Amino acid sequence: MTSLTLPDTWRIGDTVLHSRFLLGTAGYPSPEVLRQAIEASGSQVLTLGLKRTLGSHEGRDNGFVQIIRDTARAHGAHLLPNTAGCRSAQEAITLAHMARELLGTHWIKLEVVGDEHTLQPDPFELVAAAAQLTRDGFEVLPYCTDDLVSAHRLIDAGCRILMPWAAPIGSGMGLLNPWALRTLRARLPDVTLVVDAGLGAPSHAAAAMELGMDAVLLNSAVAQALDPVRMAGAFRRAVMAGRDGFRAGLMSPSDVAIASTPVSGQPFVLP
Asked: Hey, which CATH number is domain 10-248, 3.20.20.70, 3.40.50.970, 3.40.50.620, 3.40.50.300?
């Protein structure tokens, strides 16, 4: 069993990270609230969607990009641009190259939408894009479903980190299929797994970490909260608690009651 006193770190590429809470930066009430939420989260990785920004007219969103860059720099955080909104491998590849040029990072959270209703990733386009971007020198973090076979294909394409969903993006439904996530953890012990999308409450994040996930990424649950700053802090603590619970060793569930203080066959002293 791993001692809780040992350093508990993980990596994206060659970068060592201590925080296991990745935070999205979209939809906050104001730039100042976003800054405070980032500080409260303790996150070392901030995601940034560039499709809307790069496609905007007259540079309306350029100020937002600068705010994120300045905030990340002030907190020693790393930017993880994503290809949210892309519908094909080629579109995602093009956007990834633009993001690298603009932000100076080879990290990319790869998203390729396959269904407009659920925003479920397209597994075929995702693998094609991941393979090309890996060849192009990117550290590719693909947003995928919890399907084990698809996960293997992404690993074959060169991905070292996978980002399986808990539930559809923005749904807040939590872990719809804990069994599938548990299976991914068991079958891919050496692959970094970051649960992404669908987490709506701090308890959802704790549950994901208790399954042995390496980290969680979320946006809406914090940005849309009545108090985003307080919620960011709540998720930070939940991620830490879930991770500590996993490392400590959770008790196995049982279908029958087991007395926590058995007395049969045990000596005791009368008063």
From this structure: 3.20.20.70
